[in-house]
Design goal:
The N and C termini lie far apart (about 65 Å). The chain has a domain of about 60 residues: OB fold (Dihydrolipoamide Acetyltransferase, E2P) (Beta Barrel). The strands form 2 sheets. The chain has a 3-stranded antiparallel β-sheet with strand order 1-2-3, with no helix packed on it. The protein is elongated, with a radius of gyration of 23 Å. It is built from 2 helices and 5 strands, in the order αβββαββ. The longest helix is centred in the N-terminal third of the chain and has 19 residues.
Amino acid sequence: MSGIMKVFLLLAVIVCITEAQRGCLCHRVRSQIRSKVKDIQIYPATTFCAKVEIVVTDRRGARFCLDPELAAVQRVMASIIKARTTARPAALTSSPDSTNTASL
């Protein structure tokens, strides 16, 4: 491979890496939720974006980001995660010819 081709290849790699680092979804964040929420998505930090991002979609379809560092946002997120991970107790049923099975 010629020297000029190597330089162009190196420049292309640098451009790709630079663009990938701009991969964060949230450029501005809000400190509170002002309307009814339809969906919340939590994006962990990655190699493309070094910060945790919380993207909220309201009932009208508008999307905005919340500041994950604020205590109020952390409390809301903790309550949502707790509600999702708390499972309902399952009732066990069995018959003489089968093993125990859980029914919800």
